[in-house]
Automatic annotation (TrEMBL):
EC number, as in UniProt: 5.1.3.-
Gene3D superfamilies assigned: Jelly Rolls
Record-given protein name: dTDP-4-dehydrorhamnose 3-epimerase
UniProt keyword list: Isomerase
Gene: novW1
Pfam families linked to this entry: dTDP_sugar_isom
EC top class, as a word: isomerase
An annotated GO BP: polysaccharide biosynthetic process
GO molecular function list: dTDP-4-dehydrorhamnose 3,5-epimerase activity
Top-rank lineage group of the source organism: Bacteria
PANTHER family per UniProt: DTDP-6-DEOXY-D-GLUCOSE-3,5 EPIMERASE, THYMIDINE DIPHOSPHO-4-KETO-RHAMNOSE 3,5-EPIMERASE
Length: 201
């Protein structure tokens, strides 16, 4: 498994080896040795594993978790295809407001690590696209926040010519500036402390 640091500080893309044969193929979506080599520590203790299924054109996000408690994520796409966005929402981060993309699909099986305070969005490029999540915290609706993916200050380059489908909550989400003025954005120093907390055995 190879790792590549993204344009957002602390976020990584992981590219596993895929082993095909006459029966099909085998892939390991997460490998602790690769994670330790990239981040200097193992994956966070997993509190929840989740999965979403989306039709072509579904746009989810930009989603993030109120910090604290904060939430780290590791995502991959076991079926279909998606354009995944990693957005730095941590006030005080050297890459605040910056974003990067990773093509997720069931061919290369890339995974993406999101540190606490980093926003996540994706566009499903095929029907029945599955996105699988490992989460460091259990889902709490009161702590889940969203920003507008159309905010020109963020400037996400969404796929052209694809009619996008959003939830009502995502359509009503505030801009980056509005969320910052309301004190909703995560603090970089707090996020770093959460990210480096010792692993619970």
């Amino acid at each position: 498994m190879k790792a590549r640091e993204l344009a957002v500080e602390g976020a990584f893309e992981f590219i596993p080896d895929v082993f095909p044969d006459e029966r099909g193929e085998f892939v390991s979506h997460y490998q602790e040795a690769a994670f330790i080599a990239a981040l200097g520590r193992p994956l966070f203790p997993v509190a929840q594993a989740s999965q979403s299924r989306s039709r072509r054109g579904v746009l989810r996000g930009v989603h993030f978790t109120r910090t604290p408690p904060g939430c780290a994520k590791y995502v991959h796409c076991p079926q279909g295809s998606a354009l995944d966005f990693v957005v730095d929402l941590r006030v005080g981060s050297p890459t605040f407001g910056r974003w990067d993309t990773v093509a997720l699909d069931a061919t290369d099986y890339r995974g993406v690590y999101f540190p606490p305070g980093v926003g996540h969005a994706f566009v499903a490029l095929r029907d029945d696209t599955l996105i699988s999540y490992l989460l460091s915290e259990s889902y709490s609706p009161a702590d889940e926040l969203a920003l507008s993916p159309f905010d020109p200050e963020i400037g996400l380059k969404l796929p052209a010519g694809l009619p996008l489908i959003q939830s009502e909550r995502d359509r009503a989400a505030p801009t980056l500036s509005e969320a910052r003025a309301a004190g909703l954005l995560p603090d970089h120093a707090v996020c770093r402390e959460l990210q480096q907390a010792p692993r619970v055995s």
